[in-house]
Amino acid sequence: MGNLIRKHGEDYKILSNDLLKRCCTITGFKNEEIRNEHRKFFSIAESGRLKKSHMEELLGDYLPTTKRKHSKYFTKCVFSAIDTNNDGYIDFLEYLMSVRFFRTESPIEKADLIFRIIDKNGDHRVSKEELERTLICLQEFHKSLTNNHAIDVINDDPQLATHTIFEILDEDKSGFIGVSEFKDAWLKNETIRALFTF
Predict the structure, then answer these.
(1) Is the pLDDT of residue 179 over 90?
(2) Which of 54, 67, 145, 172, by CA, is between 20 and 30 Å from 26?
(3) Domain 1-68+84-103, what architecture?
(4) Any signal peptide, and if so, which residues (predicted)?
């Protein structure tokens, strides 16, 4: 995600004209949006390295509300999806790209982000266990919404819902859901989009 514009050794604390231009190019955001996000990021992560414990302060508006016992797992999943260089921190560019992905209207980009969130271990495939844990985390969020047919799918039994959804998504019957299988279902199946949209 962020590696496309990352320069070796750059800490992003100073928003130079070069960095601003690169950020605008990769995100499509206007200069002022980038400046605002830069101020916001560094007000929370003064060192330029956002820890998992502070992620919700910056990205809370984009994350679903879940029960406390499930939010820790879901936060780890989101953090892993954003921390693209796996250094245990989110830097400014990773943060900025995550904001772009959370805001995007592109169904392909949205599906890609959601897949990376579900794929907690980052092996580019989703297991039944990863799918079930994500559905359990999102169950409370869906219950809080009105007129959400996604809750009908997972309301009574997340395990049964996981089995049903897994059967739909695992087209090649490999025992895992690949990114192309997920994206294909995201584009074609309204229930899949409803289940994983937050």
Answers:
(1) yes
(2) 54
(3) Orthogonal Bundle (1.10)
(4) none
Judged against a pLDDT cut of 70, whether residue 169 lies above it is answered with yes
The CATH classification number of 106-198 equals 1.10.238.10
What does the domain layout of the chain look like in residue ranges? Answer: 1-68+84-103, 106-198
Q: pTM above the 0.85 mark? A: no
Long-range contacts, 91-95 (Cβ 8 Å, 24+)? 91/2, 91/11, 91/12, 91/48, 91/49, 91/50, 92/12, 92/38, 92/41, 92/42, 92/45, 92/48, 93/2, 93/5, 93/6, 93/12, 93/23, 94/1, 94/2, 95/37, 95/41, 95/50, 95/58, 95/59
CB atoms within 10 A of CB 154: 22
3-state secondary structure of 105: coil
